[in-house]
Amino acid sequence: MHKVAIVGASGYTGVELLRILAGHPEVEITGVTSRQHAGKNVADIFPFLQSCLNFTFEDADPRELAQRSDVIFTAVPHLAAMQLVPALLDAGSRVVDLSADFRLRKCEVYEEWYQSEHTATELLQEAVYGLPELFRDQIASARLIANPGCYPTSAALALAPLLEASQIDQQTIIIDSKSGVSGAGRTVRVDTLYCEVSEGFKAYGLPRHRHTPEIEQTLSSLAESTIKISFTPHLLPVSRGILSTCYAKLIRDIDLSGLLQLYREYYAEDVFVRVLPEGRLPDVNQVRGSNYCNIGLSLDPRTGRVIVLAALDNLVKGAAGQAVQNMNLLLGLNEGMGLLMPPVFP
Amino acid sequence: MHKVAIVGASGYTGVELLRILAGHPEVEITGVTSRQHAGKNVADIFPFLQSCLNFTFEDADPRELAQRSDVIFTAVPHLAAMQLVPALLDAGSRVVDLSADFRLRKCEVYEEWYQSEHTATELLQEAVYGLPELFRDQIASARLIANPGCYPTSAALALAPLLEASQIDQQTIIIDSKSGVSGAGRTVRVDTLYCEVSEGFKAYGLPRHRHTPEIEQTLSSLAESTIKISFTPHLLPVSRGILSTCYAKLIRDIDLSGLLQLYREYYAEDVFVRVLPEGRLPDVNQVRGSNYCNIGLSLDPRTGRVIVLAALDNLVKGAAGQAVQNMNLLLGLNEGMGLLMPPVFP
Amino acid sequence: MHKVAIVGASGYTGVELLRILAGHPEVEITGVTSRQHAGKNVADIFPFLQSCLNFTFEDADPRELAQRSDVIFTAVPHLAAMQLVPALLDAGSRVVDLSADFRLRKCEVYEEWYQSEHTATELLQEAVYGLPELFRDQIASARLIANPGCYPTSAALALAPLLEASQIDQQTIIIDSKSGVSGAGRTVRVDTLYCEVSEGFKAYGLPRHRHTPEIEQTLSSLAESTIKISFTPHLLPVSRGILSTCYAKLIRDIDLSGLLQLYREYYAEDVFVRVLPEGRLPDVNQVRGSNYCNIGLSLDPRTGRVIVLAALDNLVKGAAGQAVQNMNLLLGLNEGMGLLMPPVFP
Amino acid sequence: MHKVAIVGASGYTGVELLRILAGHPEVEITGVTSRQHAGKNVADIFPFLQSCLNFTFEDADPRELAQRSDVIFTAVPHLAAMQLVPALLDAGSRVVDLSADFRLRKCEVYEEWYQSEHTATELLQEAVYGLPELFRDQIASARLIANPGCYPTSAALALAPLLEASQIDQQTIIIDSKSGVSGAGRTVRVDTLYCEVSEGFKAYGLPRHRHTPEIEQTLSSLAESTIKISFTPHLLPVSRGILSTCYAKLIRDIDLSGLLQLYREYYAEDVFVRVLPEGRLPDVNQVRGSNYCNIGLSLDPRTGRVIVLAALDNLVKGAAGQAVQNMNLLLGLNEGMGLLMPPVFP
Q1: Residue D129, pLDDT score
Q2: So what's the pLDDT on residue B146?
């Protein structure tokens, strides 16, 4: 059994890691930390886990935690992660960091979009962006995985085949994304109260949401040129789920069945990407609770635009599930181990 | 008191007309028809109206109904409307038709998108498109109002100021819209069952939703040139509300405050369009139950795109409320009469 | 025009007062206070009211506010109300208090259930419990109205006819209530975050929710004997609405149609109580946004129990609407003035 | 691998069986039938299962299906089940029937409550009521399991310890239950449309819901005397989940901690019943997607009543999960095999 620990397990992402790891056949959880809840049992804070897991939240020393762990998941806010990760690596653990701190390769981009100084810049080049479908080869041997953001995962999976095949005009990419509320975390805020969200829908964070440079970095890397996108996040009245509707102008003569064939080939080895058949479009309720990303396409000959829609569960493929997928690769396990549960519908 | 009747009052749009007209100080309802529910009291089918209204659904002869009505609202499906409306007009009533049958000016466009023959083509030129903020002058004297679709209302109000001021590249317009479930009506379908919609979100009707030519007709008329758009409707897990997120490339040098000023001036006389202050974006829960359309803007200098967001209640400003606004104009009443109730929040 | 002010208008109840009063034809709002939001425009905090109302939140001196108001609504937390109300009365205003501070007639009951000292006990006898359907005569001439709690309103209206007609065994009353989330207010708490409430349902506050003695006081007063009840509140995943399911053993021989007749007669003059016909049961979505309370009955001859179900909108008939109904009575206006809007469905 | 088949897999219960069985390590699905969808792939009807399962719905002959199956789940409506099950048993398969047809031991009770003739009465005595926590011993050797209803499972688990320990007055039992919409199935009906349910809440089926005699049969069997209850089902705006709030008068002197101890001992061997610690009450969102039933207690010394609250997922412990639990017992497997997935929260 491989030993894993979670630092910062008291938010929705952290507890989703616990849910997934509870069913993983080849890992043992050796530590679960939460400064806020230290000393309490996991089930006191998350009663749904009663009798599934029996852990006490600790406020452990990172170095000591690293010594009893092969892989540590850090599910703490950005800025906190960059303080913590170097010590964990030094102590010999490998790290899957779910914050934004190691996702952007360039320090100046981080500092511009996050309006904060980066204090662990030496790790920015070493960190591997943990999107297995695109960067699988680099992940297995990494010490530090920067687990992608939820929106960027959906956008990158939606657009990668088109960019690598040079099918679209890179200046015309628009990503209109809609996310469930759990993406905003469990911290109390008026905006995420039930009465504010239910029967509501709005865009937010315009025009400079922090996932923009992360998406651009991945797309640019795939296209091998600098890409700027329009990215508009919206808040959906659902707990889990992201749908990204991506638009671009086609620059070659290809029909819908050709595009679908391109996607099926591109993702032929990727168990978690489900390219939908022609005429079917993704719905976030078809991936809930699972690590799948559903992709559907439409092509409008009137305008010459392709529309790619990608749906995933922001807490699973958009966070904790992808982190476990990365962990599997780090540990040399089958990539899908512990992650193949079907979605929960309805 | 002016006399009004509703034909086809058993769907969500029809009953919303009843709700609004129940509070209108200068009209009297003289007939409410429903083939399906004929002989039953309105409150038997819609218990929320018990003691608010006391009507029996009729299956009245159109000609006879027209004789006791100054204005008739037809809230029947497309194809049914084109059968009915000529007789109502002949009998001397004025008509606000909430179906799609008289919205498109060109018969061939209707027949292409609705895949049906149009049997009342002589009325297509006469019908006035009932979007008061854009075509107020033509409405007052019309015999037949084609009440706009819900999506087209949001898109047209969002983009009109930009098009009339020639601020955007007309080839770059993308309208990403999200609608609540009541837009799909009260007819039973698996797709609109609670369990299929709740905690779900998807696009549908791609790439040829029937509101596309209606939007294009209005935008083209404003721009005085032929415009083709990409239009993507999505199904939101809310009962009421549409948010349209509209993208276009700016072609002139203007900043956000200039754009907002343009919108405020354009809609200065329009009580139902609320241009939001800089930094605030519309939410469908801020217009629920009301006839308001909230408009917010964002501008991204990185990409040169403007993003206009418009929110309305699809059953009010997107259907029944706008129909009453048109009726007020037809009858020479104050445009906002009976329609100034604030939204219901939360 | 009568002059009214609202103290503490920044919660859901306060802003619902604003929504309702905005449409009231015979009152003028002369002040809106909020310590938290003082200096901000109402629409900055509640954008849904943009262009409906134009007020700046004040942090006014109570005495000064009272001088410019005929009636003041106090929508502040309990304990704060008892500090404030004496000064408002002294300054000559009449007060409708929406807190719990003046609802319980006996100081010792208040202190037991609220675990706090009552500092305005001299007003407990003077305050009139503002449930117009039961205590209309005392309201008109009162200086201080204790506006009832949302649960107690539903329970009292559900059971009053049975108790006054001595139809039930008073020892067998069980009230199983379910409330929407807005009842918990707009203060941030983990429990009322969207992700905690959506797709959830639970009881809370057992076995000693503070509305218990308030319900018992009203029922005891109607029955002219001391009644103890079981009261179980639950949290519903809806924004607005309470349904109370009330059980009691019948002690007389009466059938369902006899019971319904009793209810119809009891509430014959009460425009806001809608007794549903046999076979129809209340749904909270049939009263949303309105001041109606819908009541339905069932009788089970197998067990000898009657079940009375009462539905209302907790923010309207359960709070702000009832407060305006009380205000109308205080001011000698028609009881339903400004309150007859139909529910918003769907 | 044991061979299992599902007859009638096109409703929510049938497809939930597929979801659960997809992850079961020791069974192989040998047939999936649906008259409605025969010839279509499971993923065409339920896209969430794409790549999880690859089956074509058949319209198989029952006898032939039985020959390739050790256990058959029948997830067809009542009346259809009694036509089908005898042939399956004759052909040598064992059957877990999810309909109501074999739950009531007495033919006359069935015929009274279901208003239909029972045509397989010879099986009523043989069928074993499949509530493992209460009747585990009889299940292993049965040929025919009558899988309990969702409400009856919650009520029986809530009240069994009290009844067996003779702690309550059997004449005072009231069960106030609330169920999610999936309990109403996937058949189209106006009542279960999103717009009718969302932001709504109502009781239904009063006073004679068909689960009443099923609950009474189980409780009477536990108490060894005839029990009549009041049972009130309500429709919750959630997809999954039942909460039953059960009331009874205590007849012995026991405190809350004594009661909780009684429950912990009663369910000490039952992995799927989670007795919550004092002060914690069950929420349906804490069991979603899992086979757990959470039980919490409250005791009100003022009234002498105990309140027991039981929450479960109506599609899992209330239907498909319990069916698999029964199957495990029939096949001699560990009772929890394939069923220990934690709930999905949020």
Answers
A1: 98
A2: 98
Whether the per-residue pLDDT at A124 is higher than 90: the answer is yes
| pLDDT under 70: residue ranges of chain C | none
Q: Which helix (H) or strand (E) holds D88?
A: helix D80-90
Contact C311, B14 (CB under 8 A): no
Among the listed residues A150, A195, A246, A293, the single catalytic one is A150
Q: Does C236 touch chain D (CB under 8 A)?
A: yes
Q: What is the separation of C-alpha C101 from the centre of its chain, rounded to a whole number of angstroms?
A: 13
For testing the chain C interface, which of D182, D201, D242 should be mutated: the one with the most C CBs within 10 Å? D201
**Contact of A292 with A344, CB cutoff 8 Å:** no
Which chain A residues are closer than 8 Å to C193 by Cβ?
A: 181, 186, 188, 192-194
pLDDT at C62: 87
Q: How far apart are CA D315 and CA D290, in angstroms?
A: 9
Question: What length does chain C have?
Answer: 346
Percent of chain D whose pLDDT exceeds 70: 100
Tell me which residue of D212, D179, D141, D112 sits closest to D317, measured CA to CA.
Answer: D179
Band of pLDDT at residue A18, cut at 50, 70 and 90:
very high
Catalytic residue at C52? no
Looking at beta carbons, which residues of chain A come within 8 Å of C190? Answer: 186, 188
pLDDT tens string A29-41: 999 999 999 999 9
Q: Which DSSP string corresponds to C219-245?
A: HHHHHTS----EEEEEE-SSSS-EEEE
CB contact under 8 A, D345 and A51: no
Is B25 buried (19+), middle (13-18) or exposed (0-12) by CB count in 10 A? exposed
Give the DSSP H or E segment for A295.
Answer: strand A293-300
d(CA C148, CA D43): 53
Domain A2-126 has CATH 3.40.50.720: yes
In degrees and rounded to multiples of 5, residue C134 shows phi and psi of -105, -30
Q: Where are the domains of chain C?
A: 2-126, 151-314
pLDDT at position A165: 97
CB contact under 8 A, C195 and A192: yes
Collapsing DSSP states into helix, strand and coil, what is residue A92? coil
Bond preceding residue D207 cis, omega within 30 of 0: yes
What residues form DSSP beta bridges with B246?
B175, B308
pLDDT band at residue D236 under the 50/70/90 scheme: very high
Q: Which of C295, C265, C303, C254 is nearest to C278 (CA)?
A: C295
Kindly report the number of other CB atoms within 10 A of residue A141's CB atom: 10
| Interface pTM, i.e. ipTM | 0.97
CATH architecture for segment(s) B151-314? 2-Layer Sandwich (3.30)
Residue numbers in B near C199 (CB within 8 A) = 198-199
Chains with at least 3 CB pairs less than 8 angstroms from chain C: A, B, D
**Burial class of residue D140, CB neighbours in 10 A (0-12, 13-18, 19+):** middle
User: What pLDDT shows up at residue A62?
Assistant: 87
pLDDT tens-digit map of D292-346: 999 999 999 999 999 999 999 999 999 999 999 999 999 999 999 999 999 999 9
The pLDDT tens digits of the residues spanning A266-313 come to 999 999 999 999 999 999 999 999 999 999 999 999 999 999 999 999
User: Touching check for C25 and chain D: CB below 8 Å?
Assistant: no
Question: C-alpha angle with apex B42: B37 to B47, nearest 5 degrees?
Answer: 115
**pLDDT of residue B62 exceeding 90:** no
User: pTM for the complete prediction?
Assistant: 0.97
Instruction: List the one residue out of C292, C265, C170 whose CA is nearest residue C223.
Output: C170
Is the CB of residue B306 less than 8 Å from the CB of residue B255?
A: no
D238 close to C237: Cβ distance less than 8 angstroms: yes
Question: pLDDT at residue B96 above 90?
Answer: yes
